[in-house]
Design goal:
Layout lengths: L10 H14 L1 H10 L4 H29 L3 H24 L5 H8 L2 H11 L7 H23 L7 H26 L4 H22 L9 H25 L5 H7 L2 H14 L5 H20 L8
């Protein structure tokens, strides 16, 4: 009986590093697109729309038999996962209009905390002491970030609102992961990605149409940035994480995603000149340590932005 050969031991770690670098550019590309006059909803729409379009031939070549055998339950789960993924990107990308890249990316990557809480509240799984400690630290870090941004000039046009949108984005991503894990269990990676991204794109196109959002009269620079978002952070970044899950633990992948706010904050400093206020830096550090502890204490933590 044949089996798929295992990659070299170092390869998943290299792939995770490439995925992390790609995902860290997500907030930067979103800001650049917004600077070109593209609305946040249009940025989210084209990020998922281009990604779904690019993955379509791969999904149909490799997974057409799986897709033809989809059950009603799987289709319903795909629509639910896509709905929450669409909300995640719509709220998180919108948050970048109002708050700093550092605060937004730090808060939007708190999904291991919410997944841990959901596991306790919904599935009655008892949290570990490490999980409880991580949640407490992260909550304290979030308060520091909110307080610092409310007191700091230049933190954004409305940092409190932006930070809240980033948190809502994290809650939506947590719901997407919880639903997506069950759907992914019975599907190959190309089929799963195509269904999730495609459903999310359909919801976003519908929302853009209902809201009268301009999707087509964009500058050449905007189109290039939006395509880069789909190819880099969305397809390369998220696919690298999903591929690595087959060879390393989900908890390790969740811990790796803590590098996203660090990478995004560094890029925002280099590209936009965004720095840290002292209290914001304290909150940022507490939040990352808290998420790290929560991810270590939660057996099935999710992936990042």
């Amino acid at each position: 009986m044949s089996h798929t050969p295992q990659p070299a031991r170092w390869l998943p770690f290299v792939v995770l590093g490439i995925g992390l670098a790609a995902i860290s550019f997500g907030a930067i590309f979103a800001r650049l697109a917004q600077a070109e006059g593209v609305s946040s909803l249009a940025v989210a729409t084209w990020r998922l729309g281009f990604a779904a379009l690019i993955i379509t031939p791969v999904a149909f070549l490799q997974s057409r038999h799986e897709l033809a055998r989809l059950t009603r339950r799987q289709i319903g789960m795909a629509l639910a996962a896509g709905f929450f993924l669409a909300l995640h990107f719509a709220t998180w990308i919108s948050s970048l209009e109002y708050t700093s890249v550092a605060s937004s990316t730090a808060l939007v990557t708190t999904n291991p905390l919410w997944i841990g809480l959901a596991s306790f509240l919904i599935f009655r799984e008892t949290p570990t002491k490490m999980m409880i400690g991580g949640i407490a630290l992260s909550f304290a870090g979030s308060l520091f970030i909110f307080w610092s941004d409310s007191q700091t000039a230049g933190a954004g046009s409305n940092p409190m609102f932006g930070n809240l949108l980033a948190l809502v984005g994290s809650w939506c991503f947590s719901a997407y992961l919880l639903i997506g894990r069950r759907l992914r269990a019975g599907l190959g990676l190309p089929a799963y990605i195509w269904l999730a991204y495609g459903a999310a794109a359909l919801f976003l196109f519908a929302a853009s149409g209902a809201g009268g959002v301009e999707l087509f009269s964009l500058s050449n620079t905007a189109w290039l940035v939006l395509l880069a978002m789909a190819l880099g952070p969305q397809l390369l970044g998220h696919t690298a994480y999903n591929w690595s899950l087959r060879y390393v633990s989900a908890t390790f992948v969740a811990v790796v995603t803590l590098g996203e706010p660090v990478g995004s904050a560094l890029l925002a400093f280099l590209v936009f000149g965004e720095g840290f206020a002292p209290l914001q830096f304290v909150g940022f550090s507490l939040l990352l340590v808290g998420i790290y502890l929560a991810a270590k204490g939660e057996k099935g933590a999710g992936s990042g932005e």
